Amino acid sequence: MAKSRFEYVRTYEQDQILLPNTYIVIRLDGRGFHKFSAHYKFTKPNDIRALGLMNKAAFCLMKQISDICGAYGQSDEYSFVLQRRCRLFDRREAKLVSTFASTFTAYYQFYWNEFFPDQPLDATLLPSFDARAVQYPSLTELRHYLSWRQADCHINNLYNTSFWALILKGGETEKEAEHSLMGTNSSDKNELLFSRFGINYNNEDPVFRKGTMLIRDMAKASSATPEPDLKDEMPLQEKSKRQAEREEKRRRKAEIVELHEDIIGDGFWNESSKWLS
Amino acid sequence: MAKSRFEYVRTYEQDQILLPNTYIVIRLDGRGFHKFSAHYKFTKPNDIRALGLMNKAAFCLMKQISDICGAYGQSDEYSFVLQRRCRLFDRREAKLVSTFASTFTAYYQFYWNEFFPDQPLDATLLPSFDARAVQYPSLTELRHYLSWRQADCHINNLYNTSFWALILKGGETEKEAEHSLMGTNSSDKNELLFSRFGINYNNEDPVFRKGTMLIRDMAKASSATPEPDLKDEMPLQEKSKRQAEREEKRRRKAEIVELHEDIIGDGFWNESSKWLS
Amino acid sequence: MAKSRFEYVRTYEQDQILLPNTYIVIRLDGRGFHKFSAHYKFTKPNDIRALGLMNKAAFCLMKQISDICGAYGQSDEYSFVLQRRCRLFDRREAKLVSTFASTFTAYYQFYWNEFFPDQPLDATLLPSFDARAVQYPSLTELRHYLSWRQADCHINNLYNTSFWALILKGGETEKEAEHSLMGTNSSDKNELLFSRFGINYNNEDPVFRKGTMLIRDMAKASSATPEPDLKDEMPLQEKSKRQAEREEKRRRKAEIVELHEDIIGDGFWNESSKWLS
Amino acid sequence: MAKSRFEYVRTYEQDQILLPNTYIVIRLDGRGFHKFSAHYKFTKPNDIRALGLMNKAAFCLMKQISDICGAYGQSDEYSFVLQRRCRLFDRREAKLVSTFASTFTAYYQFYWNEFFPDQPLDATLLPSFDARAVQYPSLTELRHYLSWRQADCHINNLYNTSFWALILKGGETEKEAEHSLMGTNSSDKNELLFSRFGINYNNEDPVFRKGTMLIRDMAKASSATPEPDLKDEMPLQEKSKRQAEREEKRRRKAEIVELHEDIIGDGFWNESSKWLS
């Protein structure tokens, strides 16, 4: 095609390329979900429909983009983990974050009616998400990242469970509930929930307490001919095209498993090779 | 709230901040729209419904984000222009591109049924968009950027109009049409359209030939007390909070005007002060 | 040449490219010059030898690198201004800052003996400089940048002149002098210098009060055939090779002029076209 | 101190921060050393004085900046390795590369007379160096980086040794020598050196064949109370101030050892814990 004399403005486009061989985490956050959840009358402290919809959208994104090996979600956020050797979009940051945010939004909206059949979306307040990419050079940091998000889930959920019990069952105002919880630690809150409201926090739904971990279970996707041990290869050694296609196929076939369990302790990480191969 | 010992992983988050006082253009592109447009049977060479939906989504995004002063769209792409002094999201690149991509997607999907009432979206192929941010230090470059996109619209549309005339009206195969157009210049194609198919290209719908320019017309939004001349102020001088709120209000009230005209020549730019204030 | 299998590590090299068509300022700062100036017994509050050496090194750097169109220095810092359209080192940030820092250091050390004949450098404390690159999209900001540095020179020099007058002529300790100046404004210090020490600050050496501005005076370098007016050309339009060589030649021939005058007011900037063409 | 109204221009300064917990390599390269080495009549194919001076400057830089744990040099280049957890200059890229380039230049020039007593530097051609920073997320990549530079040293030196033997001993012109070596592999060159000039390449000075590796030998610097095992700690866990000072002291006391041996094979890396702790 012919080119115009204005073409030179392309030279101003600068791609931010993420460093090779780091774990990339792309975290999506709901925009203005405080207002959004009020507008669509989300149940307090947790709305199982809203969490289900988040998980559905994340699941669909993982199905579509096979480079995602795992994802962790809680509240209105979702973190997607890409393999160290991932080359999706040549590791261009803007392309990664915009595509993830857009595609997730599309699924979230598409499945809205399935999860909120009585609450149609209206044009004045549509769901949207921003995204950021973070790089972690080692597995330890990736583990600590996911642990950070789950610890955050725990801290927030214990607080919110107590806060809304005081309001919904204890008849306190939001102000009073906030005051009641000031200075309390975890065991104070556990005690309060149990003694005043008969709630054993540990019996709360794990999806509330632990969030949701999605993993692409490559163990179950193993083909007849196992992959050769890759440990000693160079980090970025090119694979043959055929090898790459075979791996892509395995990733597409692999089952995506949903977990609501502890991802901080060793148990989860002892088996991480099956999704973080 | 309590913090976990994993909190340190936050220090790995690095924000790419766009330079102050440059024009920021955020361009969205449809992901895989070749396949998408075939799947949903878009009319060739142009589908007025699809362009209408793009314009609707862009209009809604401009309504929601008042920092956008103008936008240009054609085919499956849309470019949004932010003022030099814009501080939206502290000019963080990832936040800007992900939010624009997500929000545009939300509107595009929400209004789909209005533009394609007989063609419901199905889960196997949802619309999504990637985005990039480009910085232009001077008005000349911004003008050249928009000119580049409109020149691109012209070149592509003239080609596509000829290509599909050869197929739909001339009975050629795609291969043959491609061959017929090889080596032709603009006037060859104009001549071909006219002599063989009686089509005067200049009478084609301007939205096809020129694309769509949306401007936030601040001239019509002027309040009784006009803004003082800002020419001599320092580029980043802080405005008082009240000034900022008043300007925000004016931007929200301003009409968004849709144009399908030449944006390369001086005519359009002689009046640019009304939207690029 | 043959390549080794380790070559892939090159892909980790990421160049930070400065945006096209912005003014680039590269500012060098002496490393640990508080200690350095004490070690080599610099005169207080200003050492004319040290400033002369800074100016000499800056002059030599401008002679060597013809892309530099101007430079401003004071104390142990020097800022070098590159044209908007400058393409030196493809605008790679690391290459620019490291080369400027290294080359300036080489000249500073080479001419040391000329300015400090009685004070040879010793290996335990050699002069070195760090550097940073800053981008300014408009001429206004470049002007404000240079104004900022000269205002800084003024503020510091007035303080230091007063401080050392109190010590060297007033017999105060450093502590006492610091205390004497606490809360004083400019006119207080002017008054103090005059009334107590008979010093009219405005008669102090301009190199102390105003710092040093070096400009590459292209007006005097103009060839018989004048350059065509470039105002309307595209910012990055390619010049012919011959044009580029001719301009390079003109830049090399141009005289570098040393000024010690006000660079904040309009006077200096009304004539800026001769060096900032 | 008072601030001027121009202070806002500081907001345009953007620091590029290197990712935490990656190995940082800063590689310096001589600027225009082809011309420089001809000007100062360096011996061909290797000048032992020039290499000695490079090593001296690198040694001094390591002495001054204790964060450097190792360095590898050959020809007119030197690569400095920083620990993963290094926080020197808050990992600001421009500050790192400019400081390294400047300080290395200062030492190189200062010790010039010691290595080239009969060849004083002249102002028309002073030595200078540029620098770049590269990040490697894993030890494997760092090892491959250093292996790459040593393989490069080997390939170049074998070529240059053959090339200059053909000229200096074989009486060929540069053109002829280039032609003679076209298409030869390593063993061809070894054979040529031996059969035509009686040179056993493996007996050449190791500093030519292997380059120079400097390591900060922490093993010999160990204090009575050994450091606790740090393997399980978080990558960025804060050390107590006392711990940090103690480690700094140990690093300053540690001997810097100069090696001219193979750094590609396992032998060197089996003992890497003593400098890459």
TrEMBL record, chains A, B, C, D:
Organism for this UniProt entry: Myxozyma melibiosi
Top-level taxon: Eukaryota
Reaction catalysed by this enzyme: a 5'-end ribonucleotide-tRNA(His) + GTP + ATP + H2O = a 5'-end phospho-guanosine-ribonucleotide-tRNA(His) + AMP + 2 diphosphate + H(+)
Record-linked PANTHER family: TRNA(HIS) GUANYLYLTRANSFERASE-RELATED (PTHR12729:SF6)
Domain Thg1 C-terminal per the UniProt entry, residue ranges: 141-265
Required cofactor(s): Mg(2+)
Keyword Heme applies: no
EC code(s) of this entry: 2.7.7.79
Name recorded for this polypeptide: tRNA(His) guanylyltransferase
